[in-house]
Amino acid sequence: MPALSPAGIERFCRELEASCGLAYTPEKAYLFEARLADFVASRGLRDYDDLARLFLESADARRTITEALVTSETYFFRDDGAFRALPDLLAARHPSAGDPAVVWSLGCATGQEVWSIVFTLATDGRVPLEAVRIVGVDLSARALARAREAQYSDFELQRGIDPLTRARYFEPAPGGGRVARPWRDQPSWVQANLLDELHGLPRPDVVFCRNVLIYFDDAVKRRVVGRIADRLAPGGVLMLGNAENKLLFADLLDPMPDGPAMLRARR
Q1: Fewer Cβ neighbours under 10 Å: the N or C end of the chain?
Q2: pLDDT digit string, tens, across residues 34-70
Q3: Structural Rg of the chain based on CA atoms
Q4: Which residues lie across from 84 on neighbouring strands?
Q5: Is 227 exposed, middle or buried (0-12, 13-18, 19+ CB in 10 A)?
Q6: What angle in degrees, to the nearest 10, is found between the helix axes of 59-69 and 29-43?
Q7: CB 207 within 8 A of CB 229
Q8: Sheet strand arrangement including 170-173
Q9: CA distance 174 to 172
Q10: Angle between helices 81-91 and 112-124 (to 10 degrees)
């Protein structure tokens, strides 16, 4: 990428944060250069002012730029305390096929968290999967396409999937495995920006939003959690990443004292 003026990069950072909450600063220019070099070259852009203008004017360009800059690091059963807690949380709500519980996985990336939820509930058995609606949500259409396909390399499967789980829930696929039916048909997938309203999604009983907020500043974090709090069912639970500060949201939801970083709706 060409040398860019400070004014140009600051404008681009502002537009990026306003659009999707990503709190990049000009000091992160090395990430832009690494992740956007091909895009910039293909469009013949001269500087960050050009990039900012294109970002604002073209929905396709905005989607491509955002997907390139979103970090989709994930693996199966990451911070497994959240998954251990989930069956108890749902069993206490007594869901049924006629009145299912709803679980959101926000920032689900390529789907490993969603499948970990599916496998956890199927293995535990107290809450039938037909009594739970699981929704994976992500900004990236490319990541969601991989999540729907549910096919993973041997390397990806080795990150959290033990041999018994692989034998039970996966079928062989070239270079790895694919989630087998009927498990593969259980979740639904939604492309959405967490900065937008979440009213198009079913009202959740449990929300996984783990290691997503770390990319936002505190004001945006509170904005996102406030919207989640507005949508949570009475007594519903928000799960954050273990390293995230749940006390930042104590005026919005009640921090739970035990287990992973969890907060409960007051209503």
Answers
A1: C
A2: 778 778 778 877 788 888 888 888 878 877 887 777 7
A3: 20
A4: none
A5: middle
A6: 140
A7: no
A8: 151-153, 176-179, 170-173
A9: 7
A10: 50
